[in-house]
Every structure is written in C-alpha cells, then in structure tokens.
Amino acid sequence: MKYEERALWLSCEGERLAAVLTRPEQPAELGVVIVVGGPQYRVGAHRQFVLLARHLAASGFATLRFDFRGMGDSGGAQRSFEDVGADLRVAIDALFAEQSGLRHVALWGLCDGASAALMYVDATGDARVAALAVVNPWVRSPTSLARTHIEHHYKRRLHDPTFWARLVTGRIRARSLAELWQAWKLSMQGREHGAGDAARGFQQRMADGWRRFAGPILLLLSGEDYTADEFRDALRDDPLWRGALGAARVTMHDLVGADHTFAAAAQRTNAQRLTADWLAGVAASRGP
Fold first, then answer.
1. Spatial CA neighbour of 6 closest among 19, 17, 15, 16
2. Which structural domain, as residue segments, surrounds residue 159?
3. How far is CA 144 from CA 101, 168, 178, 186, 220, in A?
4. Contacts of 65 (CB under 8 A, 6+ apart)
5. Residue 256's Cα: distance from chain center in Å?
6. CA of residue 284 relative to chain centroid, distance
7. Residue 109 burial (CB < 10 Å; 0-12/13-18/19+)?
8. For every one of its 288 residues, what pLDDT tens digit does the chain have, with 9 covering 90 and above?
C-alpha cells in the first residue's frame, strides 16, 4: 500500500514538538503513535522508528513518531520518561486531528518509551488508546540489575571451564570477584526483603497501568538484551507483575537472537511483521 510522509510541528505547554506523520492512502480506523525510548529521537537507532512507521503505513496504519520536549528537534528542557504524559497526549491529539476517520490509537513503545506508555494509560485512562505494544520495557532498579547480572551473566560464567581455569591461575582480577560478590549480596537482599518493598514508584505505575488497561497488549522481548531479561525476571519474581501474562488480551513473543534495538535487519523486519499482524487483528476485532 502506498503512503505519504509529512513533517508536523506540535505545541506542548508552550514548546514545539517535531513530528512526522506517515499515512497510507486508505488508512484503518486504528492509528499508531510511536513512543521512543531515551535518549533517542524520532528516527531511532538504525533508523528503526522510520522503518517501523513506513512498514505500518504500508500495512494500512497511519503512524506518528515525534520528539519529546528537549530531544531531537523539539524545544524545551529534557525530561525523564516519567514526565512525558503531556507530550504523549499532544501526539495523540495531533494524530486524530490529522487523520479523519480515526477512531482509536495504539501506543508502540520501546524501553522506557514502553514504560511511559503504560504510565500514560494508568494516569489518564485515555479512552482513545485501544491497544499497547510494549517492547523490552524498562523496569530497572539497583536490585533488579544485580539480579539480572547474577542470573544471566555470572551463572553462565560459573558453568564455563575457562572461568575456573582463569580463577585457579589468578588471571581473574580481584576487582571482578569483588563485583560478583557485591552483585550477589544485592540480589539476595532483593529476594529477602521482597521486590515490592523498596520505593519503586515508576515500576508500580507501570504495573498498575498494565493491570487496569482493558485492551490488547503486545509484548516483544529480545533474546539478547539485559533490559528484556530484567522484565522477564520481574514477570517471574516480582509481586507487582504476578499474573501479568495470564490474561487472554496479552500476546507475547520472545525474539531469539534480537538485541535491544533490533540492529540486525532480519530481527527488525520480524518485529515489524509481528507488530503489523497484531495491529491487523486488533483492528479486525473492533469491527467497522
């Protein structure tokens, strides 16, 4: 399907946001807003957001990608992903203003963009948002990072005969052993006190958004990515996320071999295809 691209300037609390609308000739009633993960702007690593928007538009979905305030070509001070709700609302408003016949929107977010999307629906209950695609969501805390290092890095090393040979011969630096010891102590502290006991404001808001959102959710997790590993661990161990995958509305794909931003063309194409197929199912389920 043919599509066109057009640059837009949006207004958010007195600042201008740079945006690009990629629109097919015959758009569906469901559109997409891409929520970038930081620190990035609307193009993305390996031009992934450009290519994603074009793929989705070729599949029939009008897609808007934009720069948060303080990023890329947008004005204002840079802000945390925890404080971009106003920017997101403006982007959704713009897509509806530019695309006649639009009835609903899906938010597609990578990393802390996925976190921002979940917090947005939790904070606003915006009825225009009909679906969420969350990709390698960011749930990091010092404890979760230490646990991920233990589970997904050091355990592999402990099963590697080369590691033990280097340890016996003194070729492993004392600093590396100290880092392992500190990571183990911190990961055990998290398990002893319970993952939900620490002050984890944004993680709580994300989990609340996931539970309260009634629409379909697409979860894509890369196979070679610590951020994705941390979220897998949260799904398994953290009371905040208990039962998160049990709902029928959740579709999950593990992308074996993919890194955080889908640098390899084959992995990027696969993520695009999975997203477009899922969106087609969402659009069909909502009917005319």
1. 19
2. 143-193
3. 44, 30, 18, 9, 19
4. 19, 20, 22, 33, 34, 36, 42, 49, 50, 53
5. 17
6. 24
7. buried
8. 899 999 999 999 999 999 999 999 999 999 999 999 988 999 999 999 999 999 999 999 999 999 999 999 999 999 999 999 999 999 999 999 999 999 999 999 999 999 999 999 999 999 999 999 999 999 987 565 556 545 655 455 555 566 445 555 655 555 554 554 454 445 455 443 344 434 448 999 999 999 999 999 999 999 999 999 999 999 999 999 999 999 899 999 999 999 999 999 999 999 999 999 999 999 999 866
Burial class (CB in 10 A: 0-12, 13-18, 19+), 246: exposed
CA separation for the pair 151, 146 (Å, rounded): 9
Burial of 163: CB neighbours in 10 Å, binned 0-12, 13-18, 19+? middle
Instruction: Calculate helix-pair angle for 142-149, 174-193, nearest 10 degrees.
Output: 120
**Do 89 and 174 fall into the same domain?**
no
User: Is the same domain home to 71 and 171?
Assistant: no
Domain boundary (176, 193, 210) is at 193
Token pair for 79:
């802000």
280 touches 248 (CB < 8 A) = no
Same domain, 112 and 63: yes
